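> call design_seq(struct)
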């Protein structure tokens, strides 16, 4: 009886969690918004001209955070990972730093996303690498990450 009640409550909780097609979200200042407020819940995307889900991710207060999964055309998991927002401890030139740890087949991939609103910050790449490495050291996260700079504009 208790197990049945627990499972019912768990299913009810999961089914009530908000889900949003990522195409309905707005990106403002490198955050996801829905109806003018930072979005919290699950986002998903669909393959073009299909009702098949291609991607799901968790978003907390507008920031990708937690588990994400990319699916193939037949619903199989092709890659999955986790977004971890690092504490920048104030005083940095960054809005936030997000570590993405993922796995595709047997290959483990680590990416660091540095989010900033100041275009001059991006120009000083050695300074960024130094600050990111300090944050990774403080949080005991391995630095065996290949650093590649890709600049995005939202």
């Amino acid at each position: 009886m208790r197990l049945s009640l627990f499972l019912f409550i768990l299913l009810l909780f999961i089914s009530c969690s908000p889900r949003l097609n990522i195409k309905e979200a707005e990106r403002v200042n490198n955050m996801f918004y829905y109806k003018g407020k930072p979005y919290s819940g699950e986002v998903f995307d669909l393959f073009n001209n299909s009702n098949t889900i291609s991607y799901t991710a968790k978003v907390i207060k507008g920031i990708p955070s937690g588990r994400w999964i990319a699916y193939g055309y037949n619903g199989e998991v092709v890659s999955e990972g986790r977004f971890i927002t690092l504490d920048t401890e104030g005083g940095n030139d960054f809005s936030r730093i997000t570590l993405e740890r993922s796995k595709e087949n047997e290959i483990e991939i680590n990416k660091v996303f540095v989010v900033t609103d100041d275009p001059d910050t991006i120009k000083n790449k050695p300074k960024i690498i130094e600050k990111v490495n300090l944050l990774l050291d403080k949080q005991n996260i391995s630095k065996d990450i290949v650093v590649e700079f890709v600049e995005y504009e939202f």
